[in-house]
Design goal:
6 helices, alpha+beta, globular, 31% helix
Length: 200
């Protein structure tokens, strides 16, 4: 839709970083202790990291700072906060986008005490919408361990499609596990929706 004036542009700007439950904002130093704690927790690391291992705080802090710089046009990172209270609930990033393909990879982490409350669903929906509507992406993909059934259900609910399997690409507990590739395309994402597909 072509804007006819500044009011429409401002209306779009006022909602592009807000979902139903969450709001995105820049990383704040006060976010880092919780982000480090969540990243280090072995029971959650096994769902999203290649290797579960204790790591010092400093490299994890730098990792989140790097993911949140949002200085290059094909990369953004946000702290995810509860829209009503402002409480930190997680972190999201899109990375790797470049011309001519305009494809990025999505990564999301919701803090352990906030899982199961709809934050992940809303954050993935909002970041996908942001990627298509503000960054001009054509494709957003996510790699998810096949055994991470909760995450796969969230991505399907939001509108991501399972398009392939990297067989035995992940090693945990003495054996190999598959990794599922899921994606969303701009052409399938509703142009008139500020927050992507929803369930009927």
């Amino acid at each position: 839709m072509t804007w006819t004036g500044a009011t429409e542009a401002q209306s779009y700007g006022s909602t592009i970083l807000e979902g139903d439950r969450v709001r995105f904002r820049a990383l704040d130093d006060g976010d880092l202790p919780d982000l480090v704690r969540w990243w280090r927790a072995p029971e959650w690391a096994v769902l999203q990291q290649i290797l579960v291992r204790p790591r010092p705080e400093a490299p994890i802090v730098e990792m989140f700072r790097s993911w949140s710089k949002s200085e290059r046009s094909g990369e953004v990172g946000f702290s995810v906060v509860d829209r009503a209270s402002g409480e930190l609930v997680g972190h999201v990033t899109l990375f790797g986008a470049a011309l001519p393909v305009r494809a990025a990879t999505l990564a999301v982490m919701i803090g352990s005490e906030h899982v199961g409350r709809g934050y992940g669903t809303d954050a993935v929906r909002l970041l996908t919408t942001y990627g298509f509507r503000e960054m001009g992406l054509n494709r957003i993909e996510i790699q998810v361990h096949a055994f991470n059934d909760r995450a796969r259900a969230v991505y399907r609910k939001v509108g991501y499609v399972e398009e392939g399997v990297r067989r035995e690409a992940v090693f945990h507990d003495g054996r190999f596990h598959d990794e599922v590739i899921m994606s969303a395309l701009a052409r399938d994402w509703p142009a008139d929706s500020s927050s992507g597909p929803r369930e009927d």
